[in-house]
Amino acid sequence: MRPIGEIVCFLVVLTSCYSQWLVFAPLEDTSELEEPDPWVALMKPELPNTLVLTDPLDYDQPELEEPVQDPTTSSTLENLAEKVDNLMSQLKSQEDKIAKLEEANKKLIDKVDIIEQQVKTNNLIFYNVTESKRENHRSTLQKVLFILNRVMKVRTSPSDITVALRADVVDDNNTFYKHRVIVVKFANFATRMKVLGARSRLSHSNIWVSPD
């Protein structure tokens, strides 16, 4: 028989070798031992182990792209705006000139009206005085003096009358008188008023007198 010491050494070596074999031995594949359940495979679809994002998540609002302006268009618009401003300035200047001219014209018209009133202050118009074919300024004056002295009984002389002439006058009905009227300008306002006050003496004739 072998001695006990050798047997003990053999057992120790054998135990050490078995321990190392357990550490380094590969694990057995248990998948071959158990058959997969087909119902479980149908109920549990395979899902990817990793979720891959193609684009990074952006939680900010998207920025709007600014329109690209054509420098040629911008320059054209600026030129048009400048031209419009120039035209508006010229129009305003013309309007101011027109307003001044209208004001000056109104003043001139007022002055003309005043002058006409002053000119007509001593005037009287004689209507329906018979006109002859060869009548002239002297014969017209003689007819007026005859009417004043003989018909109206107002003593007057040629020196009391500045001018007596025929003129075409249209009445409110736009009809011409058969005989042209005689416009008489007296030398003074007093004589004119004296004749105007005596016009009622012409009621029995076809002649009448009125202010100019």
Automatic annotation (TrEMBL):
Protein name: Uncharacterized protein
Coiled coil: 77-118
Claim: Signal is one of the keywords in the record: yes
Domain of life: Eukaryota
Signal peptide extent: 1-19
Keywords assigned by UniProt, alphabetized: Coiled coil, Signal
